[in-house]
Amino acid sequence: MTKTFPIFFSTKLRRFLRRRTLLVSAALLLGAVASLPAQDQEQLDLFAEAPPPPSNRVFEYKMNAFDLEHYSEAVEDMIGLFEQANQKKLAKGAKGRVGLKVYSDSGPGLSTPEPLVEAVVRALEKRGFARNEIFIIGMSAINLRDSGFLPPLSKRAYDFHQVFVRSLDSGQYYHEKWFYDSPLPAKSAKYWINVAQENPFPAKDEDELARKSYLPVPLLHEVDFWINLPCYSDHPVLGVNGALMNATLWNASNTTRFLNSPANAPVAVAEMGAIPELRETWQLNIVSLERYQYIGGPVFNSLYTVSEPYVLLSDNPVMLDSLMAERINRHRSKNGFAPLPEQMKILEFSEQLGLGDRDIALMDLIRAN
Q1: What is the Cβ-side half-sphere exposure of residue 311, based on CA atoms within 13 angstroms?
Q2: What is the pLDDT of the chain when averaged over all its residues?
Q3: Rg (CA), the chain
Q4: What percent of the chain has pLDDT over 70?
Q5: Which of 352, 357, 356 shows the shortest CA–CA distance to 13?
Q6: 64 close to 101: Cβ distance less than 8 angstroms
Q7: Quick one: which of 117, 154, 206, 363 has the fewest CB in 10 Å?
Q8: Is 163 left (phi over 0), alpha (psi -120 to 50) or beta?
Q9: Residue 334: exposure state from Cβ atoms within 10 A (0-12, 13-18, ≥19)
C-alpha cells in the first residue's frame, strides 16, 4: 500500500491508521492541514473523534425525461428517502446557509445539468431555505458562464435564478489561513505553473506559496451543509473524475500540479477530502447520468459520451465513484478501449482516510421508483 506514497509519508500514514481519526489525518499526514487562525491553534485537538463514516446507501431514481419537472420529482423523492434512512431532516441550522458545488470544468458539454441544480434549490426551499440563503460555487467564472450558471457579462449579474453564484477563480473565497500544504513543486522541468495565477495571495517566499492550495472558505465556515453536484468522466491520472474530484481538486487553488502527478494526485484528493471542516459540512452527492464520458476526459468529447436515465444520490462519494468507474469501464470495453485500472489509488486512499467504502459489493442500492 505505502509503496506508491513518498517515503516520508508512510510513517505518518501508519500513525493515522493506528489512531483511526480523521483529524489526525488532516493535521499530521504530509501537511494536509487547513492552517488554523492563531487564536484557534491551541484549541486543536489531535485526538478528537472522527465524524461518523458515510453509509453505503446509494439512492437511484429512473428518469422518464431530463427536464425540470422530472428532476424535481427525483430530487425530492430521493432526499425524502435519505432523510428517512438517517432519521434526520435536511433543515436550516445556526448558519442558515447552504452551498451547491457544481461541475463546469469540462465546459458546457459536460457540466452539472441546470434543471438538476434548480430542482435541488426547490427541494431546499421546501426545507426552509430562501434563495438568498443558497449559493452556487464553481471553479471558473468563464466555465460557469459557458455552462449557463452565470448570465452574459452584459447583464452585470451574478445569479442563477436568483441564487448567487460564486467563482473560486476570483480569489474572493479563499483565506490565507486555510490551505492544504503539499511539497509537490509547481515549477520543475515536468510541471511549469504560474503560481501567481494559481494562488490568490502574494508571498515573500514564492516557494512557500507554491506549496499551498487554498481551500473554499464558504464551504468550510459559512454553511450548515453543502451538496456536491459532480459530473463523470475518466481521467488520465486519477482514473475517474467525479464526486471526489469535484469536492477537492476542483474546489481549491493551485491544484494543476496534482493533475499531472499519478503518485501525488490520489494522496491530495484523499487528504483534502478528509480535512474535518470540509467533511463535516459535506452532506450529499447528487449526480445525473444524463451525460457522462468514458474516454478522453476530462476534456469534453461528444463522441465518447453516453446517457442513462438515472439520477443517483449518496453520502458516500467513494462508493459513487467506484460505481461510476464500473459503468465507464463497461462502455470502454464495449467500444474496444482498455479498462480503467482495477485498483485506483484515488478510491483506495480515500477509503483509508474514512471517506467511504469503495467495494460496490457492499452497496445498499435503494430504488426510489
Answers
A1: 30
A2: 84
A3: 19
A4: 79
A5: 352
A6: no
A7: 154
A8: beta
A9: exposed
Number of residues in the chain? 369
Rounded-to-integer distance, Cα 186 and Cα 192, Å? 6
Q: Which residues contact 181 (CB under 8 A, 6 or more apart)?
A: 30, 31, 32, 33, 35, 211, 212, 213
Contact 300, 107 (CB under 8 A): yes
From the list 292, 170, 295, 276, the residue with the least C-alpha distance to 243 is: 292
Per-residue pLDDT at 195: 52
145-159 b/e with 16+ CB inside 10 Å = b? bebebbeeeeeeebb
In this prediction, residues 274-303 reach a mean pLDDT of 96
pLDDT computed for residue 157 by the predictor: 82
Average pLDDT over residues 276-290: 96
Question: Looking at the predicted structure, is the pLDDT value of residue 192 above 50?
Answer: no
**pLDDT value of residue 181:** 84
Largest CA distance in the chain: 58
Contact criterion met (CB below 8 Å) for 199 and 212:
yes
Nearest to 121 by CA among 90, 83, 89: 90
Grid cell in block for residue 264: 501525488
Any residues with CB less than 8 A from the CB of 353 and at least 6 apart, and which? 16, 22, 25, 29, 270, 271, 273, 274
> CB of 242 within 8 A of CB of 273?
no
Is the CB of residue 268 less than 8 Å from the CB of residue 349? no
Distance CA 290, CA 292 (A): 7
- Bigger pLDDT: 2 vs 188: 188
CB-based contact 98:133 (threshold 8 Å): yes
Q: What is the residue-wise DSSP string for 285-350?
A: EEEE-SSEESSSTTS--GGGEE--SEEEEES-HHHHHHHHHHHHHHHHHHTT-PPPPSS-HHHHHH
Q: Given this model, what pLDDT does residue 185 score?
A: 56
Whether 305 contacts 296, CB under 8 Å: no
Q: What pLDDT is attached to residue 229? A: 98
In the predicted model, what is the mean pLDDT of residues 212-228?
94
Contacts of residue 362, defined as CB under 8 A and 6 or more positions apart, other chains included, come to 56, 319
